[in-house]
Design goal:
Elements lengths: L2 H25 L6 H13 L5 H13 L2 H4 L2 H7 L6 H14 L1 E2 L2 E2 L2 H6 L3 H11 L5 H10 L11 H9 L12 H18 L3 H13 L5
Antiparallel strand pairs: 1-2
Helix pairs in contact: 1-12, 2-3, 2-6, 2-9, 5-6, 8-9
Length: 214
Amino acid sequence: MCNKNTRLVNFHSGKKRQILKRLEEFRHLLDESEERIFAELSFCICTPQSKAVICWRAILGLMNNSLLYHGSKEEISAFLRGIRFHNNKAKYIVEARNFFTKKGHLNIKSIMKNANNSLRLRGWLVKNVKGIGMKEASHFLRNIGLGEDLAILDRHIMRNLEELGVIEGVPKGLSKRTYLQIENSMMVFSRTIGIPMGELDLLLWSEETGLMFK
């Protein structure tokens, strides 16, 4: 095992308890309200090219005054200032809210719970929810305990994969085909190094940012 891999395994050993606790929290999220699950989806809609901590702070603000569930695109957009493409993302949140609202109530949990395959569910989300691509769908499913086998390929993760020799370089664009290729390479590396995918993602994100976030 090369020095970089050995260092990663040692880092994992030191972070394992914290990582497992975080994953356990994710697994229980579907026990919470429809509104809480929608907040997680909205957070993932906000994250492209923006800092996760800032995105979650904005979502918390929207939750606290119920604008996330009842606000207009303009009202939501005002809370998303500081997040890239905040007007488009506010629009996507409102469209997702309308899409998942049935008879005046959010209905997202039953759809998520009834799916028995994370890959198909990810594909369904990408197809049906504007603003959700492969990375965002993977992120959302992991955060609600349904996607620990999926890769969340943001720039932090791919930069680490490049340094570890898992991929040759960080691609300028990320088509579905390229995403799946890198995800497969990460899965092979995960098995080789003995660190499950869900744990590996949090580990690499923590190493890059210093945070054990979401």
